[in-house]
Amino acid sequence: MTRLRGTLSVCIDAFPAWTRPLALAFVVYALSFGMRMLEYPAWQNPEYMLDGEYLLATHDAYHWIAGAEGFEFGAGHPMSELVRLAAAFTGTTPAAVGFWLPPVMASLVAVGVFGWAAALGGVEAGVCAGVLASLAPGFLARTLLGYCDTDLVTLLFPLLMGLGPAFWMARFMFTPLQVARRLLARRTGTSDVVPDAVAVMMTSRGEADDDWHGGALSPRWLALLAGSGLVGSWGAEWHSLFPYLIRYDVVLLFGCICVFGRPGMRRALLVGGLAYTLPMLVGAWGLLFALALGWGLHRADARFMAFVRGRALPVAGWCAVAVLLFDPDVFRMFLNSIAGYVKRSGDPSPGAGGDDPLVYPSVAQSIIEVQDLSLSEVLSYFHPWLWVALAGLGGFVPLLLARPAAFFLLPLGVLSFLSVKLGGRMVMFGAPVLALGFALPMVWGVQRVLRHDLRTGWVRLALSAVLLVIVATPFVDLLPAMTQGPIINKRHAEALRHIRTATPEDSMVWIWWDWGYSAHHFAHRRTIADGASHGGPSLYVPAAVFSTANPRFAWQLIRYTAERGGIPGSVFEGMGGAQAQELVHRLGIEKMTFADAPRQYLVVSYDMLRLGFWITNFGTWDFLSREGKGYAISSIPQQLSYSLDTGEVQVQGNTTGVLASTIDVFDEGQLERRDYIVRQGGSGNAIADYAARQRNIESRRNIHFLFNKVTGEKLVLDDRLYNTVMVQLLLCSPDDTRFAPYFKLIYDNVYARVYEVR
């Protein structure tokens, strides 16, 4: 065995040292990607595909897909460009890329966390930490198959932008514990027993001890620092979070240099820090500084070297950095972002003020990812087992004490716990923090109890592998169960695709904002609202159309908006609350005339019904009382049986049921309807018929059942929701006299309909 171990060591040592962590990084990526593929069998459902193309799992994915196709304002965004280039490279469609890109990109987070483990001194433990972070439920839920959104890079970029400085700091700075011991030694008057580990490492790697900067400004370090800075700068183009993280990282690096920098090297470290901070703050212009610094050091010109060694460069450079940090626009954006996460009952219109401000309903309360989480829920989003999450949280504290670079990750952990106030979308940021806090101390701790001859890299790797097998066990069942399928029904997508070929290019599509981006992709038409325009008037105006039971009001509000350029904000522009409410009243009772405008199309779908409460809550908004009333809808999980003859619905196994007012059964290519109120009577005796009708109404619950035979879904609606435009236009005959004067049916596949607004 000893001879075999020696032979393996000789073979491994024949490869360059950098190949071993590279091979482990590949293993980490493969493990993460392979685990994520456990979800794929759940997508083998014909309902999840349209013409051989998988439907996507999040609304925002269709924004980037449409942008990759060159449509609407997503075009040119880095995310859309990534999808476009990937589609061109693979020879497939942007939608196909949108389905497969999440596991490909999200698995890079595992590699990023592995890199952080290496920077913190635990490369072998990084195998466990990397895979564990990539599979954290909070991150996994936002990066499953079909979840093609900026979350794929929102976590990756913060890891990469701090990774270069982390390696640099580990090489040229003391740890907090070392600094504390040095301070204690000075206070007690004892000799400094802390070895200058940095100098020892530099000497062992052949770097000149007489070099004034100790190798901290060597070309490879400058390149690594500048590259990390450029990642941060580029990240600001992807997401509004990065300007804040950039400023934190800049301040942190400056503080670490001042506190943990090795005596005699702080000035050189401050100069090196500029090679990181300037590219991060000003992009390519800052890169010029790093290039000039590297070129000057290479030439070793006497005057340049004197300038770099002096005080002027670090003082002037960091003063410039301070000026760049305090950007009023960034702080204004920060305040607006915080306001966006606060749950409000209403959104004041721009310029609202005076005694009668115009206040719209707020969408924030209805968005799941903005809803608050409890502390126990936050911990469950790190790992299904509570003890793993708690161990990771506790283990990160000694990492902060042992490695100052770990402070770069601290804001990610803070953001995750702010989910208790700012909503669940923040929880994914804590995954790397807790994964590193769990794996590194665990591997180090177990190794310390082993014999000295077992404290090797191979043993640490084995410990990491065993640990990973243990903590990855629950994900085998969890991953398939997390699949929610596509965000849009197959037949809904077919209806939107029909619009693309059956309508003028300048037409406007009235659809609920959740599917605005889907319409951009399938229909290539402008929508009245979408994932970026769903606040204030863009929320209320379409909601009012869908929520009303008055077809004339819906028609006139659409035409009134179209006459004003199809911009919801122009409908009530310059009005106070009373004036806006008066206009709403007039649109419902007065017959108005309108100028010609681009054609308008209204889409109703079965998908919308599930959001019936929120749509009506926004659409019934009263500008005077500043509140709306959401109508009732419920999804019934129990098995139900029903009789189309009598209208009785009962839970299977029960002997009694309820008498419904209506039953509507959705099936492939067929809608079967029963109205048990309208069809009563017919004896020829008006008085007897009226009495029978009243007895029938009194015996029935004022509720309406919808059965979906394709999905097995069962919905029950109250009378108010059932009579809204969005429900009745989906169910009624195209010749229904209530709607025919205002809306013309141009497409119907039972589950979705498209109407032309007359």
Automatic annotation (TrEMBL):
<protein>
    <submittedName>
        <fullName>Membrane protein, putative</fullName>
    </submittedName>
</protein>
<keyword id="KW-0464">Manganese</keyword>
<feature type="transmembrane region" description="Helical">
    <location>
        <begin position="108"/>
        <end position="132"/>
    </location>
</feature>
<feature type="transmembrane region" description="Helical">
    <location>
        <begin position="315"/>
        <end position="335"/>
    </location>
</feature>
<dbReference type="InterPro" id="IPR048307">
    <property type="entry name" value="STT3_N"/>
</dbReference>
<keyword id="KW-0472">Membrane</keyword>
<keyword id="KW-0808">Transferase</keyword>
<dbReference type="GO" id="GO:0012505">
    <property type="term" value="C:endomembrane system"/>
</dbReference>
<dbReference type="GO" id="GO:0016020">
    <property type="term" value="C:membrane"/>
</dbReference>
<comment type="pathway">
    <text>Protein modification; protein glycosylation.</text>
</comment>
<comment type="similarity">
    <text>Belongs to the STT3 family.</text>
</comment>
<feature type="transmembrane region" description="Helical">
    <location>
        <begin position="152"/>
        <end position="174"/>
    </location>
</feature>
<keyword id="KW-0812">Transmembrane</keyword>
<feature type="transmembrane region" description="Helical">
    <location>
        <begin position="385"/>
        <end position="406"/>
    </location>
</feature>
<dbReference type="GO" id="GO:0004576">
    <property type="term" value="F:oligosaccharyl transferase activity"/>
</dbReference>
<dbReference type="InterPro" id="IPR003674">
    <property type="entry name" value="Oligo_trans_STT3"/>
</dbReference>
<feature type="transmembrane region" description="Helical">
    <location>
        <begin position="268"/>
        <end position="295"/>
    </location>
</feature>
<keyword id="KW-0479">Metal-binding</keyword>
<feature type="transmembrane region" description="Helical">
    <location>
        <begin position="458"/>
        <end position="476"/>
    </location>
</feature>
<dbReference type="Pfam" id="PF21436">
    <property type="entry name" value="STT3-PglB_core"/>
</dbReference>
<dbReference type="GO" id="GO:0046872">
    <property type="term" value="F:metal ion binding"/>
</dbReference>
<dbReference type="InterPro" id="IPR048999">
    <property type="entry name" value="STT3-PglB_core"/>
</dbReference>
<feature type="transmembrane region" description="Helical">
    <location>
        <begin position="244"/>
        <end position="261"/>
    </location>
</feature>
<keyword id="KW-0460">Magnesium</keyword>
<keyword id="KW-0328">Glycosyltransferase</keyword>
<feature type="domain" description="Oligosaccharyl transferase STT3 N-terminal">
    <location>
        <begin position="96"/>
        <end position="160"/>
    </location>
</feature>
<feature type="domain" description="STT3/PglB/AglB core">
    <location>
        <begin position="506"/>
        <end position="623"/>
    </location>
</feature>
<feature type="transmembrane region" description="Helical">
    <location>
        <begin position="426"/>
        <end position="446"/>
    </location>
</feature>
<keyword id="KW-1133">Transmembrane helix</keyword>
<dbReference type="Pfam" id="PF02516">
    <property type="entry name" value="STT3"/>
</dbReference>
